[in-house]
Amino acid sequence: AGTDAAPVPAAVADPAAAPKPVDVPGADLVAARADVTAGRYAPALAKVAAAPHPLSGAWLLVDADALRGFGQKREAAAALAAAAPLLEGASQVEAAYSAAYLRFHDLHDAAGALAVLTASDVDIPGSLFEERGLALHVKILVAAGQKAEARLLAQRYLEHFPHGDLQSLMVSLTRQDASK
């Protein structure tokens, strides 16, 4: 004997089988990104200040970009470093790399750059930023006087990127340290 009940759709019967909602940024975040793109850094920072706190990784990226626009590199690097663990995938690695780059090149803070770079695994094998991360890591180690560690990473750079942009630098580091 049959039943008159309508079949229950699978998504209702098993909520775990339902597609996950797409994380769409709110209108305020979209407007803040547009402000940064247009060079309107003060309105972007005002929107960041009004956003729910603690800030999400996406809001911290807007904050960092606006701060950079004002030349506040130390604060921008801090926002990028704070954003990295809140983000995923390429955004996470890019935020960490950018924070490390700012700290090393613009703020001359090798220790801070190295801490961000290594905490976020920017230069691990398979990372989207492996080549750039390795290059930055090697430069930081050289600046910090850690030549043996720099030599090991320079060798790894050459193994993974034998025709990379910094091939000649990496070869000279491996030869220089090997001759001592």
| H and E string | HHHHHHHHHH
Helix content: 55-70%
Shape: elongated
Largest sheet report: none
Mean pLDDT: 88
Alpha carbon gyration radius = 23 Å
3D architecture notes:
By secondary structure, this protein is mostly helical. The protein contains 10 helices and no strands. It has helices spanning 10-13, 27-37, 41-50, 57-69, 73-83, 89-106, 110-119, 130-143, 147-160, 167-178. The termini are far apart. Residues 6-12 have low confidence and may be disordered.
Describe, in short, the structure shown:
With 180 residues, the protein is mostly helical. It contains 10 helices and no strands. It is elongated.
Give the helix/strand layout:
Blueprint: H1 10-13, H2 27-37, H3 41-50, H4 57-69, H5 73-83, H6 89-106, H7 110-119, H8 130-143, H9 147-160, H10 167-178
Helix pairs in contact: 2-3, 2-4, 3-4, 4-5, 5-6, 6-7, 6-8, 7-8, 8-9, 9-10
Short descriptors:
180 residues, mainly alpha, 10 helices, 0% strand
